[in-house]
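Predicting structure from sequence has reshaped protein science. With that in mind, we have picked out one protein's residues alongside their backbone shape tokens:
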Amino acid sequence: MENNNVDEQIKLQQKFQQLETLAKQYLTKEAINRYGNIKAAHPELAVQVVALIIQAAQSGQLKEKITDSELKQFLLQIKEPKREFKLKRI
């Protein structure tokens, strides 16, 4: 049973690597560098970025490569708003 779980994880990793390679084709050199930083710091965010890029490419929204600033815009779309805490002094 544990061996089956490991096999599934390997298959998922391979699938993600294929999607990541496809997504990188739509990024400029600077955007690829930023993506690498994101992947290192926030792997779950990197998965969302790849999904967004693939989705945009498949729907025909991408006419040219995504620049670094456009990738920042993708990140802002994904990023969850931070909660603001207000402290009241009593």
